[in-house]
Amino acid sequence: MSDWADWDHIVKIDPDKTLVDGETFEDVAATGTDAIEVGGTTGMTEEKMKRVVDACGKHDIPVYIEPSNPASVVHSDRHDGYLIPVVMNAGDVAWITGAHKEWIRIDDEIDWSRTFTEAYIVMNPEASVASYTQANCDLDAADVAAYAEAAEHLLGQEIVYVEYSGMLGDTDIVAAAADTLDDATLFYGGGIHDYESARTMAQHADTIVVGDLVHDEGVDAVRETVQGAKDATATVQ
Ligand SMILES: CC(C)=CCC/C(C)=C/CC/C(C)=C/CC/C(C)=C/COP(=O)(O)OP(=O)(O)O
Ligand SMILES: O=P(O)(O)OC[C@@H](O)CO
Ligand SMILES: [Mg+2]
């Protein structure tokens, strides 16, 4: 079974951002979150990635690199694997297969046994990831559901990621994606900032991803979102 099948909650650390004063990666690992993803769109370098992966990898929690370009991939025994985005609604094919082809050309240390993909549907036109990938975010619930179904059944994706980075998404859209998937795991990320927003999104998505909150508010706020995710799972299943 895949690691992520059991995850209700992920903290995504952006190596280009800092933790709240006085907090450590050990504190983040102790929030009760199920896994740490390390990635961001802007300002990413191999050095920043390595620093965070080394720090997070010391703790007893799965750590996955989520690279936004081939140059930010680092290899180490400190982390559990690689979650490589494929952007379903990218306007530039670089973010569907192009960067992937270049990465494979230049990197001769790829460990396929712990490398997996995430089929992103990018929904917030204001997010860096939307401009970076020239995503078409003008999608309704039926479009998102169809992208999710294409990801799972045409492209064989095991993870579908509805990405509202920076804003809380539309629950009808997240629900439409959830309803259409059979076995793929639905990740939701974007704007989760407290117990209630976490619980609401976790009622639809299998796994919620909390990003900016850890950098802006810190681990106490993150712990509330872990509780929201766990409570939603307990009610749904
Ligand atoms: C093939 C390899 C190794 C890399 C390419 C992988 C792809 C397709 C990347 C596309 C962009 C993407 C989906 C990145 C994942 C990380 C992510 C969504 C971070 C959140 O981004 P924002 O919140 O918009 O950015 P900032 O927080 O950096 O402003
Ligand atoms: O930063 P936030 O808005 O929490 O979004 C989380 C994650 O989906 C970003 O890739
Ligand atoms: Mg962000």
From TrEMBL:
The keyword Transferase applies. Mg(2+) binds at D14, T41. It is found in: Cytoplasm. Pfam families: PcrB. The keyword rRNA processing does not apply. Keywords: Cytoplasm, Lipid biosynthesis, Lipid metabolism, Magnesium, Metal-binding, Phospholipid biosynthesis, Phospholipid metabolism, Transferase. Pathway: Membrane lipid metabolism; glycerophospholipid metabolism. Sn-glycerol 1-phosphate binds at K12, Y161, V162, E163, Y164, S165, G166, G191, G211, D212. GO terms for cellular component: cytoplasm. It comes from the Archaea. Its main location: cytoplasm. Its cofactor is Mg(2+). One of its GO terms (molecular function) is heptaprenylglyceryl phosphate synthase activity. Belongs to the GGGP/HepGP synthase family. Group I subfamily. This is Geranylgeranylglyceryl phosphate synthase. The lineage of its organism: Archaea, Methanobacteriati, Methanobacteriota, Stenosarchaea group, Halobacteria.
